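User: Protein folding is very new to me. Would you mind checking the protein record under this note? It all follows right here:
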Amino acid sequence: MGLRGLACRCSASSRPSRYGNQIAASIPTALHTAVEEGRIQRGDLVLLLGTSAGVSIGGMVVRY
């Protein structure tokens, strides 16, 4: 498919003041929050990106 022609509704979801540091649960919590707030609908492409202590980083693009 490629990325050309995709509309980008970019936003970040981070709630450390609300939930604290959840480590591995941060990504699913952010996804749930964005869905509940109506910022993600079925069929949207969503970038899930996380970092951890040290030099670790992970990410994936999923179609919700």
